[in-house]
Amino acid sequence: MPEDGEQQSSWDAPGVAEWLDGDWPALPVAPALSALVDLVERHHTAGSILEVGCGTGRTYEALIRRFYLHGFPYVGVDTSAAMLDRARTHYPGVDFRSGDARALTFAGWSFGSVVCTDLLQHLPDIERPIAEMLRVATDHVFLMLWLSKASTPPASLEPKLVTVPEHGVRARFYEIPRSDEEIIEACERGGGRVLDLHVLEGERHDIGLFRVGVR
Fold first, then answer.
1. Which domain holds residue 95?
2. Which run of H or E residues covers position 10?
3. pLDDT tens-digit readout, 164-186
């Protein structure tokens, strides 16, 4: 299994940021992302919003239409320099920063809510990132991630080789759908409690939307 630095280099590998940025509208995440934003809109009432794993800024685009204009400041963090470069190009002046989900540099209770979409399935360990998100939030953590299906074999814990010839992509990524029980237990161990869980069914994996309260 690659070291963390090797996995990180995959996100900055040639063509990856361009591929993910360009293909986002075609990927089957739009209904799930819309449903997650609905959750945030319904339950975020005060304080700024931190997005962990902001990527190229697509989730920010969905959030800004409702929250930034309502006076809720936004900060986005990601470990990939290539992703952050594209996010800053798309949205000049927005507070996008380099940051690691496993060791956030913010003080405790710095944000009203934390949002994390499509990150946790790409990490070999979810305990530390979830605990860190709960540490810096005062009210809620909102998660969107792949959930395993009972009808499919268990996912490999080894990184999967992904090739996209038209973008020159050849890199390895973790693709690990988890059970809802795993997520609930990780949240409880990190100091949170799952208040809402919505599951959107998919072909290879489901998508889970979690609203986690900070205890």
1. 4-214
2. helix 4-11
3. 888 888 989 899 999 999 999 99
| Other Cβ atoms closer than 10 A to 27 | 11
CATH code of the domain covering residue 69: 3.40.50.150
**H/E element, 55:** none
- Give the model confidence (pLDDT) of 150-169 as tens digits: 767 777 778 888 888 888 88
The number of domains in the chain is 1
Percent of the chain with pLDDT over 90: 66
Contact residues for 188 (Cβ-Cβ < 8 A; gap 6+): 194
Of how many residues is the chain composed?
215
Residue 165: alpha-carbon gap to chain centroid: 25
Q: Is residue 125 within 8 Å of residue 101, measured between CB atoms?
A: no
